[in-house]
Structure formats: structure tokens, C-alpha cells
Design brief:
This protein is α+β, with helices and mostly antiparallel strands. About 20% of the residues lie in helices and about 40% in strands. The protein folds into 2 domains: about 5-110 and about 255-275, Probable inorganic polyphosphate/atp-NAD kinase, domain 1 (Rossmann fold); about 115-250, Probable inorganic polyphosphate/atp-NAD kinase, domain 2 (Tumour Suppressor Smad4, Sandwich).
């Protein structure tokens, strides 16, 4: 490990405090490093051996969009809240960071989504990439949305409710989990389609192989023509407003994100630590 870039949010005081300890380790190990604010331009990805996202899961999602196209492996150091995607907790610096710089961590490949929106055959948004999910919902508070869904050329179903989440296996523990979706092992090559509060008793989440696109078309409910604004959101970072007839196309992105994972923790260890998965409620 010779050259590393650290991406951080200058608005987060915890990240600014953590930078001092991290840069001290780099200097002791004689590691060349770049400190980059989120949103800053950087054109030297080919020089990097690794990238570090310093912050919480939101920072990790933003940095993933930057480094995945360049196949730069990413390590998350959690100085935020949950930090489900992070490989190291800030409290474990400097020991774990020194171990990472000296011997490296195992690398996992995480599938990503590529999302675009078209209107009357012309693209109006994208392509954008996402590590977690694409959400399609009504942009107006308190109103439901009607969406027709397809897997390749196969019709899946019509959904009437608050919206639809199409997520990666990594994203199965994000918004989709809150909408009663299943937990998927992150190495799976699949999509997860989870309806958000569908107004029916018979629609449940679906898991598909990621070999065909998923398309979602915004439709008027029962032929109604009143104005309705929908919204597509990509990892909560990029959003676009839509109208009736607009089509969201979601495919697997051509380059998976390379993520460094803590060799001392299995995925199930992370589920138990971060989400209390499988634990019984303690008696009061």
C-alpha cells in the first residue's frame, strides 16, 4: 500500500477530528495520501492503491459512486452513526488502520445498479450508479403511485402504493429492510424489488438474477389524467422528477465496487453487531 485517498465531509466535526489521527498513521507508515472533501474534483484515481471513506454510510455511498468506475478498492472508516458498510470503526484507529496498511484486508466485489430515466424515448436522467438502491415514489405527500414493472420483456406486476425499491444485495439491509424485504448475502448477483406499502395483501418482495434490466413505468391510476409528480432517487444522492409515461431502467453496472472487509468479522457478525440480527429482546 503506497498511495491512498481519504474522502471526508467537511461539515461533519467527527470526521475532521478523525483526520488528525488517520494522517498521523499515514506519516508514520510513509504512505502518500490525498485528503479530499466530498464533492471536490480529483483526476488521479489511477495513482491510487486504495480509497478511504471517512464518515458514515452516506459518505460511503457517495465515495462508492466516485471510485467504482476506476476499480479503486474502498475502505470505510466509520466516524458517523451506524456505519454498516464500514470495515473499521474510528475507535479501532490506529491499530486496525496500521494492520490494513501493512498486510491489507480481503476484498469483496459488490454489485451496483445503473439507473436511467427516459421520457417519450429520450433519456432525461442518468445513467447514474448506486451501491444501495433506486427508489421510485410519489413526489407529493400522502398520495399513492401506480407503476407497471418488467423484468427484461416479462411483465411482473402493477403496483399501487407508496412506491418501489429496486436494490442490490448490499442495499437489502437499507431502505428495503425497513419495507420488510429479505436480507441478501452481499456477494449475490441479483436484484431485489420491494414494494413500499402496496395497497394489497398479495404483493411481496421479489429476488431476480441480475442478468436482465428491470423497468418501471409510471402510469395513471385507472386512466385518470390529473397531474401527478413522481420521483426517482438513486442512493439518496441524485433525484429526478417524473411524469406519467416516464420509464426508469435499472441494470447491473458493468464494474462492481471493490470493498475492503474486516478479516475478523463475517457478514453475520456485522448483522449482529450493527442491526442486532437474531437477538432476543432483553427482559426489562
Amino acid at each position: 500500500m503506497k498511495t491512498v485517498a481519504v474522502f471526508y465531509d467537511p461539515e461533519k466535526s467527527a470526521s475532521l477530528a478523525a483526520l488528525k489521527r488517520i494522517t498521523r498513521v499515514f506519516k508514520e507508515k510513509k504512505i502518500r495520501f490525498f485528503l479530499l472533501k466530498l464533492g471536490a474534483r480529483f483526476g488521479r484515481f489511477r495513482d491510487l492503491d486504495a480509497a478511504i471513506a471517512l464518515g458514515g454510510d452516506g459518505t460511503m455511498l457517495r465515495v462508492a459512486q466516485l471510485v467504482a468506475p476506476h476499480s479503486v478498492p474502498l475502505l470505510g472508516i466509520n466516524s458517523g452513526g451506524l456505519g454498516f458498510l464500514s470495515g473499521i470503526e474510528f475507535s479501532e484507529v490506529p491499530a486496525k488502520l496500521e494492520a490494513f496498511l501493512s498486510t491489507g484486508f480481503p476484498v469483496q466485489q459488490r454489485r451496483m445498479l445503473e439507473v436511467s430515466v427516459s421520457r417519450k424515448g429520450a433519456r432525461i436522467f442518468g445513467p447514474e450508479i448506486a451501491l444501495n438502491e433506486c427508489i421510485v415514489r410519489c413526489a407529493e405527500q400522502g398520495r399513492a403511485i401506480y407503476v407497471e414493472s418488467f423484468y427484461g420483456s416479462d411483465f411482473i406486476a402493477s403496483y399501487f402504493g407508496d412506491g418501489i425499491i429496486v436494490s442490490t444485495p448490499t442495499g437489502s439491509t437499507a431502505y428495503a429492510l425497513s419495507a420488510s424485504g429479505p436480507i441478501m448475502a452481499p456477494q449475490m448477483d441479483a436484484f431485489l424489488l420491494t414494494p413500499i406499502c402496496p395497497h394489497t395483501l398479495t404483493q411481496r418482495p421479489l429476488v431476480f438474477p441480475a442478468d436482465r434490466p428491470v423497468t418501471l413505468e409510471i402510469k395513471p391510476w385507472r386512466g385518470r389524467r390529473e397531474t401527478l409528480s413522481a420521483l426517482a432517487s438513486v442512493d439518496g444522492q441524485r433525484n429526478v422528477k417524473m411524469k406519467y409515461g416516464d420509464v426508469v431502467r435499472i441494470t447491473e453496472y458493468g464494474k462492481p465496487l471493490k470493498v475492503f472487509v474486516n478479516p475478523e468479522l463475517s457478514y453475520f457478525d456485522v448483522l449482529r453487531r450493527k442491526l442486532k440480527w437474531g437477538e432476543r429482546a432483553r427482559e426489562i
